[in-house]
Write a structure and sequence with these properties.
The protein is α/β, with parallel strands linked by helices. About 15% of the residues lie in helices and about 30% in strands. β4, α2 and β5 form a beta-alpha-beta unit. The structure holds uridine-diphosphate-N-acetylglucosamine and calcium ion (CA). The site of uridine-diphosphate-N-acetylglucosamine (UD1) has 29 residues, from β1, α3 and β10. Uridine-diphosphate-N-acetylglucosamine binds near residues 76, 82, 167 and 197.
Length: about 450
């Protein structure tokens, strides 16, 4: 049976109070919808359809990269009505898996249990036992434990309100059967909506086994309707990711205070201190240490490198035994050679620092090609921008640039050159010589301070 996935994402998400549609809201570095598509993708579906709403063009544009087709539900008349829009694209022989765009943390293994059950001819619905079932549809089972129907929160009797097994809304079944049941679903309920959940009672009438597949963990079934639930899902995801990383050998000083919003690869004995945020694609070699409060995005960091507290790194390639920070900023297209040092309040942008080069304090290195073993003193600035264009500064191997020097690009400092502190250098400085560009120091003989008028 070909697997055809339908993801419901047409709701506006009014309770978010946001201009961003609900399924475009970010969770752990991806949108809610991206999480759902990724989980479904693990089952290698033949086809995935996203049901989007009127005004949901933004959702489509934001997710143009996803391997899905888009089906419009012009009016949001309920989850059942949403699935009806998907029917023209489903073949009766397909196995349909219905997912919700606002239930993003479901695991592929759980979805597999649903489709396995549906392959046996059952209607498989994902359920969970939750400490607080408020807001969810409740699973009603008969004396023999068989699921007989789902009752929506707003339609529950006082006794049914106490049922703690809830519907997640996710289900799998034969598409032909689903078509037949949906044709019979009406909207006579508290919300005047066509409920997808009503197909369960119809399946029971047809003598089809309704298999309530219980999720391993209730974090998988978090439905996200408001910002509070979004934060709860973020917390659950953070815990899950940290758990996986630690089991794979990463030392996290505090797993509750580490946010990965992308992917992380790492070697042996890496240590990440508290309150770090990693985004995009980050790779760490062996024995890399990341200090507290570091923010690292799209970087590759070599063996034995140390990133000290509160440094911000973005789009850089960093060698081995490098020391960065505390309080350093490394910007895109920067390459730091082995054993380079970039210290506090140093900003490096689109520059290459050769092996063993150092800029330890308060400097701006932008659009620079710096050789090996160069020393960049405190307060050195590359003046890379003339108001129109960016220009390159070249500093050759072994040069020593004295403190508070401004290097007016384009300019080249030759190998082994010394630049006297406080110089403004706007012509190339020859290799191996001392160049100074500053006013001579003078002392005025007999000078007296101005006298104060009484
Ligand atoms: C639904 C279930 C409820 C379950 C809960 C779990 C129904 C009738 N109820 O309730 O049993 O406990 O999810 O989270 O199915 N959507 C559309 N078009 C519509 C309506 C909804 O695409 O016309 C989409 C929404 O964008 C959302 C999903 O379907 O992604 C669920 O809709 P929502 O209104 O949030 O349903 P709940 O009231 O939470
Ligand atoms: Ca919901």
């Amino acid at each position: 049976m070909a697997l055809s996935v339908v993801i419901l994402a047409a709701g506006q998400g009014k309770r978010m109070h946001s201009d961003l549609p609900k399924v475009s809201q970010p969770l752990g570095g991806a949108t809610l919808l991206e999480h759902v598509v990724r989980a479904a993708g693990a089952l290698a579906p033949a086809h995935t359809q996203v049901i989007y709403g009127h005004g949901g063009e933004g959702v489509r544009e934001r997710h143009a990269h996803l391997p899905v087709s888009w089906t419009l539900q012009a009016e949001q008349l309920g989850t059942g009505h949403a699935v009806m829009q998907a029917l023209p694209q489903l073949k009766d022989a397909d196995l349909a898996l219905i997912l919700y765009g606002d239930v993003p943390l479901v695991r592929p293994g759980t979805l597999k249990r649903l489709t396995d059950s549906a392959e046996k001819g059952h209607l498989a619905v994902l359920t969970a036992r939750v400490p607080d079932p408020r807001g969810y549809g409740r699973m009603v089972r008969d004396g023999a434990g068989r699921v007989t129907r789902i009752v929506e929160e707003k339609d529950t009797s006082p006794a049914e309100k106490h049922i703690d097994e809830v519907n997640t809304g996710l289900m799998a079944c034969n598409a032909g059967k689903l078509r037949g049941w949906l044709a019979k679903v009406g909207n006579k309920n508290a919300q005047k909506e066509y409920y997808l959940t009503d197909v369960i009672a119809l399946a029971v009438q047809d003598g089809i086994v309704v298999d309530g597949v219980l999720a391993d963990h209730h974090d998988e079934i978090h439905g996200i309707n408001d910002k509070q639930q979004l934060a709860q899902a973020e917390e659950a995801l953070r815990k899950r990711i940290a758990g996986e990383l630690m089991l794979a050998g990463l030392t996290l000083r505090d797993p509750c205070r580490f946010d990965l919003r992308g992917s992380l690869e790492f070697g042996r004995d890496c240590v990440v201190d508290v309150n770090c945020v990693m985004e995009g694609k980050v790779t760490l070699g062996n024995r890399v240490k990341i200090g507290p409060g570091a923010v690292i995005k799209d970087c590759a960091i070599g063996d034995d490198t140390e990133v000290l507290a509160h440094s911000v790194l973005d789009g850089a390639r960093i060698g081995r035994k490098v020391r960065i920070g505390p309080f350093a900023r490394i910007r895109p297209e920067t390459v730091l050679g082995d054993e380079a040092h970039v210290g506090n309040f140093v900003e490096v942008k689109k520059s290459r620092l050769g092996a063993g080069s150092k800029a330890n304090h308060l400097a701006y290195v932008g659009d620079a090609q710096v050789g090996e073993k160069v020393n960049i003193g405190a307060g050195v600035i590359t003046c890379n921008y003339d108001g129109v264009a960016k220009h390159t500064t070249v500093i050759e191997d072994g040069a020593f640039v004295g403190s508070d020097t401004t290097l007016v690009a384009p300019v080249t400092i030759g190998a082994g050159a010394y630049i006297g502190a406080g110089s403004t250098i706007n012509k190339d400085a020859p290799a191996g010589q001392l160049t100074l560009a500053r006013a001579k120091q003078t002392t005025i003989p007999g000078w007296k301070p101005p006298a104060k008028k009484s």
